[in-house]
Design goal:
By secondary structure, this protein is an alpha+beta fold. The chain contains three helices and ten strands, in the order E-E-E-H-E-E-E-E-E-E-H-E-H. The protein has a single domain, classed as glutathione-dependent formaldehyde- activating enzyme (gfa) (Alpha-Beta Complex), CATH 3.90.1590.10. Helix content is 19%, strand content 32%. It starts with a strand and ends with a helix. Pfam families: GFA.
């Protein structure tokens, strides 16, 4: 079990189980939500992530479904926990990597998606995927085996 706290420390989640995947999303919504060039997130089964104590998370959607419920700490309003639920599939939780760093061994970033929307170039050996369908497929083909295992 691992815990992750928001930047102000007033909201905490408990994370059980192993990470399913780590991705870097360069889409404009992730840039807007995270106020960063991309979102570096670790994906877990939603059932393995739960708030602790008085944690208050305020969720919103930046676009119509199917969409990610993007959660911020109600106190500091910083990105904290995102959830994706879609029919016929297990729900997935996204936790910012920086909130987990130092507590668990994080997997390497498997893929950079929506790279065509990037605000800055990244020079690494990770696959850089552009376009909506190609980005969705790149994540799903890496995520599905982990969800089925």
């Amino acid at each position: 079990m691992t815990t992750a706290s928001c930047p102000c420390g007033l909201s905490t989640i408990e994370v059980k189980g192993d990470p399913l995947l780590r991705i870097a999303c360069h889409c404009s919504l992730c840039q807007q939500f995270n106020a960063a060039p991309f979102a570096d997130i670790v994906l877990y089964r939603d059932k393995d992530v739960s708030p602790i104590g008085d944690t208050k998370i305020r969720y919103s959607r930046l676009r119509p479904p199917p969409a990610v419920d993007r959660g911020v700490c109600a106190h500091c309003e910083q990105p904290f926990l995102e959830r994706l639920r879609w029919p016929l599939m297990p729900a997935v939780a996204f936790v910012p990597s920086e909130l987990l760093a130092g507590q668990v061994v994080l997997p390497d970033i498997a893929v950079r998606v929506f790279y065509d929307k990037r605000s800055a170039d990244v020079d690494d050996s990770v696959p850089h995927i552009s376009g909506y369908l190609a980005s969705q497929w790149a994540v799903m083909r890496r995520l599905l085996p982990a969800l089925i295992a």
